Amino acid sequence: MTAWPGLWMAEAELLAGYPVLLDKELHEAGRSKRIVAFFIITTFALVLIPLIGYGRVEYFGDGFRHEVSSRNMDALVGTWATLVGFLGSLMVIASTVDAVSHERSLGIIAWVVTKPVSRLSYLFAKASAHAMMACAAIVILPSAVWCLLMVALFREVPVANIIVAAGILCIEMTFLSFVIVALGVPLRSVTPIAIIALALWFLPNVVPEIERLRWTANVLPSYLPIAAVGVAIDEAGSYTLTIPLASVAVAAVAFVGAVLAFERQEL
Length: 267
Prior knowledge:
Blueprint: H1 3-14, H2 18-30, H3 33-56, H4 70-96, H5 101-106, H6 108-112, H7 119-153, H8 159-183, H9 190-206, H10 224-232, H11 239-264
């Protein structure tokens, strides 16, 4: 009977101050001009997809809502997933790359950890806040606007596939947020963090061209945008499950390693 209270107290100590830090990070992220700009840019780019498609794609029957071939619908939906996946990756990198290094250079981290908060809480709050804001501002809200417009203009929009694909894209944004925050622990400069993050983003374009490494396409976390496109156009395969699981596992390992290093680091 005494084990459970002791376990709860240990967990509370590890995450000491997390709610306060998370609220602080969310408020700061919400006031960020970059997040607002990314939301506007992403929404505008996505809205162009159905509008241009409505005027250019061949359709059948009469009426305001066009009925298009499955191939054309796949093109419209696939363009959405590709745009959010790759454009969103760059936006997450740009908004998160200095999350830890900037506060370290200003001495904010050293001041924060003198308060009744744990270092785990600091990193976890920063990573989770960036992930939440990225999922909301880059994936969920712009995609909701796009999907409503698609349903208004076209018949037989695969909404269920779109929801699953959006979930995979949210995993991508979460993976990048946690990994970039983790990179901020051993790397004190923005430049190497950005280079490594961009390398992860470019890997899906390089690996399939290397015959001996082609098998890694189904386990590379940075292959998530391709997996999202496959799900969106109803061509899901083994990567539907393996890539998101690999992403969660890699991000968790990277983040835990960063936390352990951060605990021993002098600030």
